[in-house]
# Entry
Amino acid sequence: QVQLVESGGGSVQAGGSLRLSCAFSAPSASIYCMAWFRQTPGKERERVASISPTTRTTYYASSVKGRFTISRDNANNTLYLEMNSLNPEDTAVYYCAANGRVFCPESSGDYDYWGQGTQVTVSS
# Structure
Protein backbone atom coordinates (compact mmCIF):
# COMPACT_ATOMS: atom_id res chain seq x y z
CA GLN A 1 0.00 0.00 0.00
CA VAL A 2 1.29 3.43 -0.95
CA GLN A 3 1.33 6.07 1.75
CA LEU A 4 2.46 9.68 1.70
CA VAL A 5 2.78 11.74 4.87
CA GLU A 6 3.68 15.42 4.71
CA SER A 7 5.24 17.49 7.44
CA GLY A 8 6.89 20.87 7.87
CA GLY A 9 4.10 23.31 7.18
CA GLY A 10 3.46 26.31 9.39
CA SER A 11 3.23 30.07 9.56
CA VAL A 12 6.00 32.44 8.53
CA GLN A 13 6.38 36.07 7.64
CA ALA A 14 7.00 37.23 4.12
CA GLY A 15 10.60 36.65 3.11
CA GLY A 16 10.91 33.63 5.37
CA SER A 17 11.61 30.00 4.56
CA LEU A 18 10.06 26.60 5.20
CA ARG A 19 11.02 23.07 4.32
CA LEU A 20 8.31 20.53 3.59
CA SER A 21 8.96 16.82 3.82
CA CYS A 22 6.98 13.89 2.48
CA ALA A 23 7.67 10.43 3.82
CA PHE A 24 6.84 7.95 1.12
CA SER A 25 6.22 4.24 1.57
CA ALA A 26 5.61 1.94 -1.37
CA PRO A 27 7.12 -1.03 -3.13
CA SER A 28 9.99 0.17 -5.32
CA ALA A 29 9.43 3.75 -4.22
CA SER A 30 12.29 4.99 -6.35
CA ILE A 31 10.35 4.37 -9.58
CA TYR A 32 7.65 6.90 -8.81
CA CYS A 33 7.34 10.39 -10.18
CA MET A 34 6.78 12.68 -7.20
CA ALA A 35 5.38 16.17 -7.02
CA TRP A 36 4.20 18.96 -4.78
CA PHE A 37 0.85 20.57 -5.44
CA ARG A 38 -0.87 23.40 -3.63
CA GLN A 39 -4.45 24.49 -3.35
CA THR A 40 -6.30 27.54 -2.08
CA PRO A 41 -10.06 27.76 -1.50
CA GLY A 42 -12.05 27.95 -4.70
CA LYS A 43 -9.08 27.15 -6.93
CA GLU A 44 -7.86 24.03 -8.64
CA ARG A 45 -4.90 22.14 -7.29
CA GLU A 46 -1.77 23.54 -8.91
CA ARG A 47 1.46 21.67 -9.56
CA VAL A 48 4.24 23.58 -7.83
CA ALA A 49 7.17 21.29 -8.55
CA SER A 50 7.88 17.73 -9.59
CA ILE A 51 10.82 15.40 -9.95
CA SER A 52 11.09 12.34 -12.16
CA PRO A 53 12.23 9.04 -10.69
CA THR A 54 15.39 8.18 -12.61
CA THR A 55 16.76 11.22 -14.43
CA ARG A 56 15.50 13.44 -11.59
CA THR A 57 14.30 15.96 -14.13
CA THR A 58 12.62 18.78 -12.25
CA TYR A 59 9.76 21.08 -13.06
CA TYR A 60 8.81 24.32 -11.32
CA ALA A 61 5.80 26.54 -11.75
CA SER A 62 6.84 29.97 -12.98
CA SER A 63 5.54 31.53 -9.77
CA VAL A 64 8.05 29.61 -7.63
CA LYS A 65 11.02 29.18 -9.95
CA GLY A 66 14.19 30.41 -8.33
CA ARG A 67 12.63 30.33 -4.84
CA PHE A 68 11.60 26.71 -4.35
CA THR A 69 13.73 23.59 -4.69
CA ILE A 70 12.40 20.03 -4.94
CA SER A 71 14.58 17.07 -4.10
CA ARG A 72 14.19 13.40 -3.28
CA ASP A 73 16.13 10.97 -1.18
CA ASN A 74 15.31 7.55 -2.59
CA ALA A 75 17.38 5.77 0.02
CA ASN A 76 15.19 7.20 2.75
CA ASN A 77 11.99 7.45 0.67
CA THR A 78 11.56 11.13 1.37
CA LEU A 79 10.58 14.02 -0.85
CA TYR A 80 11.45 17.61 0.08
CA LEU A 81 10.39 21.08 -0.92
CA GLU A 82 12.67 23.88 0.20
CA MET A 83 10.75 27.16 0.04
CA ASN A 84 12.58 30.47 0.29
CA SER A 85 11.56 34.11 -0.11
CA LEU A 86 8.00 33.19 0.71
CA ASN A 87 5.26 35.68 0.01
CA PRO A 88 1.57 35.78 0.95
CA GLU A 89 0.61 34.37 -2.48
CA ASP A 90 2.32 31.13 -1.43
CA THR A 91 -0.28 30.60 1.28
CA ALA A 92 -2.04 27.31 0.54
CA VAL A 93 -2.43 23.71 1.56
CA TYR A 94 0.51 21.83 0.09
CA TYR A 95 0.15 18.22 -1.01
CA CYS A 96 2.67 15.57 -1.83
CA ALA A 97 1.67 13.36 -4.77
CA ALA A 98 3.06 10.39 -6.66
CA ASN A 99 2.40 8.20 -9.64
CA GLY A 100 4.10 5.17 -11.09
CA ARG A 101 5.38 6.88 -14.23
CA VAL A 102 8.80 7.83 -15.51
CA PHE A 103 7.56 11.30 -16.39
CA CYS A 104 5.63 13.77 -14.28
CA PRO A 105 2.33 15.00 -15.73
CA GLU A 106 0.88 18.43 -15.11
CA SER A 107 -2.64 17.51 -14.09
CA SER A 108 -3.50 16.51 -10.55
CA GLY A 109 -5.88 13.96 -12.03
CA ASP A 110 -2.93 11.97 -13.32
CA TYR A 111 -1.50 11.34 -9.88
CA ASP A 112 -2.56 8.20 -8.07
CA TYR A 113 -1.43 8.82 -4.53
CA TRP A 114 -1.78 11.80 -2.25
CA GLY A 115 -0.79 12.90 1.20
CA GLN A 116 -3.18 14.53 3.62
CA GLY A 117 -1.82 18.04 3.01
CA THR A 118 -0.01 20.54 5.18
CA GLN A 119 -0.95 24.18 5.64
CA VAL A 120 1.52 26.92 4.75
CA THR A 121 0.58 30.45 5.78
CA VAL A 122 2.68 33.47 4.86
CA SER A 123 1.83 36.79 6.46
CA SER A 124 2.83 40.18 5.11
